[in-house]
Queue: 2 jobs
Job 1
Amino acid sequence: GQDGRVSIEVDPRLAVKGEETAEMARRLHRTVDRENVMIKIPATEEGLEPIAATLAEGISVNVTLIFSLERYRAVINAYLTGLERALLQGRDLSKIHSVASFFVSRVDSEVDARLEQIGTEQALALKGRAGLANARLAYQVFQEAFSSERWKLLAEAGAVV
């Protein structure tokens, strides 16, 4: 990964089991015992609290399976919540890292298949555009969240974007 980071994922079968996901994240982190490890946690509804809980314990995360803007906002909130909890516990925020993997091509694959079913000239002209449009909107959400007062307080405490 970038800057020498390595991601290890929790068992995907736990994606809808929040506490079990958090426990496996802790166990993986303890087992690897390296500062450069990030634990992959899926951005399911049930994964949001484990994301915050894992970060609060000073464990870096790689959040996967983000397809929608609504879920991306929820993931950012979980990140900020986790950092706020970590700060309250006196943790060094500069050592906590996170990546949010916002999917682009998988959105295109799904939308393109639906556009092909519609089959009109207008529909077919839109193929290959939905994923990028969605990603542009996600970047706007990112910019908004990471210029907020909530973020500024965390950044002053050493938090990493």
Note: The beta strands are 6-9, 37-42, 61-66, 98-102.
Job 2
Amino acid sequence: MILGDLGADVIKVERTGEGDDTRSWGPPFVGTESCYYLCVNRNKKSVTVDFKKPEGVKIIKELAAVSDVLVENYIPGKLSQMGLGYPELSAEFPHLIYCSITGYGQTGAYSSRAGYDVIVSGVGGLMHITGPADGEPCKTGVALTDLSTGLYAVSAILASIIARQHTGRGQHIDCNLLSTSVASLVNVASNYLNAGLEGERFGTAHPSIVPYQAFQTSSGYLLLGAGNDSQFQTLAQLIGHPELANDDRYKTNKARVKNRLDLLRFLEKVFQKKSLSDWLNILDGSGLPYGPINNMEQTFSDPQVLNNGMIQKLDHPTLGEIRVPGPAVRYSVTKLVEPIAPPMLGQHTDQVLKDVLGYSKESLLKLRQQKVIQ
């Protein structure tokens, strides 16, 4: 989807009959389309091909011949059984950049396992450090390991395109959820690998910065941080307790981390004395990082979210206007493409096979009769 935003011609190859699994992930649905499917499929063309059949394999190879990049997420070795793995396609089409996205990687004891975000976030340590300090491990509210792996894939694909300009050859990219999850442990991983400190759950708090978390006010939750000692001095002034900044227990972040429980108990009582709106007004212009915890309604009516153009309206062929989160990045020169709504299943099969591969109407009719395409 991100490459499509930048102008790539993206052909989404789906199973005949069912298509992408996320098409059925609901409710909620808008008409026949799941809201889940709609959120991540703009700027793609849907082609249905049964490549368990030789005629379907031929179509995929013909697409590979005229494409820069192939992205797949099958269990390692599965596509090679059909003659569509990296070794097979790279031998025929050395220019092709072949990006595999799997649960655990191309080799190793887990490589044949099915990979799903919530499972891998447990195996990769992320779930162990997510959730309240005195509660159970929690999944994140959205599939962050899935999303982050997609972002790694985008950067790897773009880097491979640049590399191909020098070598003339494509390459195989191995992206997997487990490696993404472990790489995402960042400072918690460093704490363990270098200091032997086991990761813990801190709720909204931070293991190495205090205060840096949510506080309950009289009317909602306030997120607030003091990332350095100067910011803590400012915070102490704003909450009416400047003495905190001169207390040896709290003067430095190192001391605040050591004495976190005493400091946080005090701050919790202070913040409960005023409403969320009062604290937001007090903190306005302070230079401190702060904000409310918004629900979806509040998020998509937030003036900065609206300013950043994060609600994208698309004209869908059967549903009318739909709305999805917009692209996260703006460019001063590069123009993003005029967005196209997520495709209906097989919406572009005939168009792609005719216009890209030169198939005749008679050929399409024969393929449809053979149930190679839908």
Note: The longest strand covers residues 97-102.
